[in-house]
Specification:
- By secondary structure, this protein is an alpha+beta fold.
- The protein has 7 helices and 24 strands.
- A hairpin with a 4-residue loop joins strand 21 and strand 22.
């Protein structure tokens, strides 16, 4: 006799799948999911926009007369949430039917949920890496002490990032092992005494260390640099440095030359411009390290670029260098100009997997409502708004019956200056 599913089968599947899905989330549990929750509908297309906060300058006068002063401009920018590809896992109908009859749904669905979570967090962590503006430590040097971790907290604070919400620092398991050897009192994490903990609780190494929750993740993104003779070049044109030009994307185009013939600059690489120093985004004053040295501006390349035979091309970077007379939105102490030396940090033909640190409001993750199929569907939603569609259907041409699980996420960069790549010193 053919398989016969109860009418509520997708609800049963959705309930168990959602539990396993939630249990396995780590990185995606520590970004803003509320902002994009419920924002997408047929009228929004593939992008939803949100206003960025405005900023202003104050003036000082002896008698309070500001008639001769220049009023601050009101400039509104937008941050965008953009729809991504589907993440789908599916199984044959017979397998699901047998699992239900044998009360083995956990064994059936846990690997499916884990696969979707893992693939989504790999993809999302790559998005975070490419859209993080800050840098802590010496690029390419492994973070192997708690001092290295604490430096990220200092970088965030010195840049004016408020410590008013969750701030995370993510490392891979081998870095966790190294940190455990330097301080055995840290590394327990989670809720003491719990027999069953979710992945985030298990991943927590230390809470509120230097103002951050330190976690371990196996889904940090990596990339491999190209082999070239020269990793330094120059700006071949003055970049646009106005806030109006960058307020909606928080990305900047830098025309470079002499930076390695036919080199491929990979997304995630960090570049540095000599002589242009970072500013605290609250005080708009230069940032000094513990030795009194200025912190140079760095930008993260957001997409792969192949340079031409003279090492020339246009690099798109996250976290623009902004310099205007008003100073309300400045991120550097002076404007980059043609001829400035631009360096790709790191080494040739090397693989990098940066640690990531971020304020919860740096990024947003949501899901897009998925249209129902001509099948039996159930929509399951996590507490923070991620929606999973569960469908049972048949493939008449292939003479098969199937069950599928779909997630279609949307990613947003709310503030690239609230996040960075972390290394050691």
């Amino acid at each position: 006799m053919a398989n016969n599913f109860d009418s509520n089968i997708t609800r049963k599947l959705a309930r168990v799948f959602l539990e396993k899905f939630e249990t396995n989330r780590v990185i995606s549990k520590n970004v803003d999911t509320q902002l994009l929750s419920g924002q997408f509908d047929p009228s929004t297309g593939d992008t939803v926009d949100f206003k960025r906060p405005t900023d202003y300058v104050s003036v000082r006068t002896a008698n309070g007369d500001v008639s001769g002063e220049t009023a601050s401009d009101i400039i509104t920018g937008k941050a965008s949430g953009v729809v991504q590809d589907y993440f789908t896992a599916f199984v044959n109908y017979d397998e699901a039917d047998e699992a239900i009859k044998m009360d083995q749904l956990d064994q059936l669905l846990a690997p499916l949920a884990t696969r979707i979570v893992t693939d989504m967090e790999l993809d999302f962590s790559a998005f975070m890496m490419k859209n993080s503006a800050l840098l802590a430590g010496t690029y390419g040097t492994a973070a192997d002490t708690w001092d290295d971790i604490a430096e990220a907290g200092a970088v965030l604070q010195s840049h004016g990032v408020p410590f008013d919400d969750t701030i995370c620092y993510a490392v891979n398991p081998f870095t966790q092992r190294k940190l455990a050897s330097t301080n055995r009192s840290l590394g327990a994490g989670g809720v003491a005494g719990e027999l069953i903990r979710n992945s985030l609780e298990k991943a927590t190494i230390a809470e509120n260390f230097a103002g951050m929750n330190v976690i371990t993740a196996t889904t940090l993104a990596s990339y491999t640099t190209s082999s070239v003779a020269d990793r330094a070049g120059t700006l071949s044109a003055d970049p646009v440095v106005t806030y109006v030009a960058h307020k909606d994307t928080m990305k900047q185009t830098l025309a470079v030359t002499g930076m390695g013939a036919a080199a491929v600059v990979k997304a995630g690489e960090v570049i540095q411009i000599s002589g242009r120093n970072r500013l605290n985004l609250s005080t708009r004053k230069e940032i000094l390290d513990e030795t009194g040295a200025n912190i140079l501006w760095t930008g993260v390349v957001t997409e792969d670029v192949t340079l031409d035979g003279s090492g020339a091309g246009n690099l798109t970077v996250s976290g623009p260098a902004i310099y205007e007379a008003s100073g309300a939105y400045n991120t550097v102490n002076s404007a980059p100009v043609s001829g400035d030396v631009v360096t790709r940090l790191g080494s040739d033909a090397s693989t990098y997997q940066p640690n990531l640190f971020w304020h919860k409001q740096a990024f947003s993750l949501g899901s897009v409502p998925i249209k129902k199929l001509y099948s039996t569907d159930t929509l399951a939603t996590t507490e923070d708004g991620l929606q999973i569609r569960v469908s049972k259907y048949s493939d008449g041409d292939a003479n098969k019956q199937k069950v599928r699980f779909d997630l279609r996420p949307a990613y947003g960069v709310m503030n690239p200056f609230f996040a960075g790549q972390g290394f050691g010193s």
